[in-house]
Amino acid sequence: MPGIDRLFERSLAALVNSGEPQILQGGRKGVEKESLRVLPAGKLARSPHPRALGSALTHEHITTDYSESLIELVTPAFTQSWELLQYLLDLHQFVYRHLGTELLWATSMPCAIESDAEIPLAAYGSSHVGRMKTVYRNGLGLRYGRMMQAISGVHFNYSFPLPFWEAYAALRGAPAHGAQFVSACYFDLLRNYRRHGWLVLYLFGVSPVVCKSFLRGRSTQLEDLGGGTAYEPYATSLRMSDIGYRNRNQAGLTVSVNSLEEYVRDLSHAISTPYPPYAALGVRVDGEYRQLNANILQIENEYYSFIRPKRVARSGERPTKALRRAGVEYVEVRALDVSAFDPVGVNQNKLRFLEAFLALCLLKDSPPISAAEQGLLDDNHMSVARRGRAPDLTLWRDGRRVRLKEWAQELIDSMSGVCEILDRGDAARPYSQALAVQAAKVADAALTPAARLMSELAAGESFFELALRMSAAHKAYFLELYPPNEARLAELAAEAEESLAAQRAIEARDHGTFEEYLARYFAD
User: Fold this and answer.
1) Strand runs (DSSP E) across 16-115, as ranges?
2) Is residue 49 left, alpha or beta, with left meaning phi > 0 and alpha meaning psi from -120 to 50?
């Protein structure tokens, strides 16, 4: 195995001995959770986003993603995982009070959608910014198919606490802990997440099966489980494989995470370089926009990645400009499947593990990634997504093959010190407990959520039947929870009304033509 990571050992020891007992505690974390609205029999609900939930354009916490049918619930940032999950639970309760007979689909992979035509684009009103959002989504559908956009996921947003940056800058001998230093450290994290993020797919992937309706005759080499279900025997997350988000159209797109400058350079090139196959689709045809432009990417968000560097943008500001202006503020982990076994799609053990894992990725030595290494890292992610539970699976590490289980155990062992720091002052040791749960999955792949889903299907249910059953169970759970958080529900009702008023105000303020608006946006 490769040599000991001296930088990581020194960093961890320094943090342990820093005299700051809670040096890693208090990081800010939030979740974005997507769910398809479906009818009681499991068909996609094609009705408009319920007005009682507010404006999808302006509501901070309840919006839509690709489709009018794809609700996205967004928590604020919290310093405690339990607060985050309580807010997410309250959001679900509020939404379910206004869904009537509809359900929120309990899994990432959609079912019972026969064609792209059944998937309605998200609508955001008549304002220029609202129209731009809908045109962008129409372009995604043309380029990749709407079915791929109907996949749901959970995104975990995280930023380290300020006291950590002060201590870490001193440890690294940096003159200050300003935006430049913080951004460089976050890019250390991004590179190491590319190296080690396959572990997240192994531990938390819960999409080893898909509905055949999702495949629509595509040749995928998946096996038939019966009941309209296709599967890969040892898969963890088909959502994050070439069957799901890992789209062939972007296979040739390389975005460096060796530095903020290279990342912005590569994304800027992709959003400004025409791509003939997209030009052939047409941009504006018979006066109607089909896509925002014919470039490799219409906008930055079109780039699919496991993790993104983020900064809250100002109104009308492009993501790359926000990063260039003030540096990285937080990271967004995008590789989590929606868990059918958790009513809100995620749980505390998962969030705590991810927090510790991101600290590991930041503290470990993180040299630049060459094009050759990136190819092997992509291969690792694909292998784990498609075959992660295979008993003797090997991955590329430093130019040679190593067993997944050995490498995973090494990473788990390395995280124990990080978890001890995060646990300081808490006799229950929740981070160490969360790590122990994941260590058990490394020792026994049968404990992974993907294996659990396969064992549930062994009783004879189809994937569609299981997902519909779990969706109905989750609805009953939220509607029967007592006592409900009436203060939070009233707050969300008020926010819904305020968001509708905010959308009307945006529409009233608009000036000029949509073409002029797009020209201003892209000129920025």
Assistant:
1) 28-38, 62-64, 70-74, 103-104
2) beta
Amino acid identity, residue 210? V
What does the pLDDT look like over 440-456, one tens digit per residue? 999 999 999 999 999 99
CB atoms within 10 A of CB 15: 20
What is each CA distance from 66 to 139, 264, 507, in whole angstroms? 11, 24, 21
| Contact between residue 66 and residue 149 where contact means Cβ atoms under 8 Å apart | yes
404-423 and 6-16 helices, crossing angle to 10°: 20
What confidence category does residue 2 fall into, taking pLDDT thresholds of 50, 70 and 90? Answer: low
Mean pLDDT of 20-39: 94
Q: Which domains occur in the chain, in start order?
A: 6-523 (3.30.590.20)
pLDDT at 1: 44
Q: Among residues 249, 67, 298, which one has the least CA distance to residue 290?
A: 298
Strand 154-159 to 330-336 pairing: antiparallel
Q: What is the pLDDT of residue 152?
A: 97
Residues 6+ apart with CB under 8 A from 360: 8, 192, 196, 411, 414, 415, 418
Q: What is the dihedral of CA 382, 31, 66, 187, to 10 degrees?
A: -50
Helix or strand or coil: residue 229? Answer: strand
pLDDT at 249 over 80: no
Element housing 403 (H / E): strand 400-403
The string of pLDDT tens digits covering residues 333-386 is: 999 999 999 999 999 999 999 999 999 999 999 999 999 999 999 999 999 999
* 243 touches 208 (CB < 8 A): no
What 3-state class would DSSP assign to 44? strand
Other C-beta atoms closer than 10 Å to the C-beta of 237 total: 30
Around 136, how many Cα atoms within 13 Å sit in the side-chain half-sphere? 20
Q: How far apart are CA 103 and CA 20, in angstroms?
A: 47
Biggest alpha carbon–alpha carbon distance for the chain: 67
Which amino acid would we find at residue 253? L
**Residue 458: CB partners within 8 Å, gap ≥ 6?**
none
Q: Which helix (H) or strand (E) is 434 found in, with range?
A: helix 430-443
Q: From CA 360, how far away is CA 366, in angstroms rounded?
A: 11
CA distance 112 to 147: 11
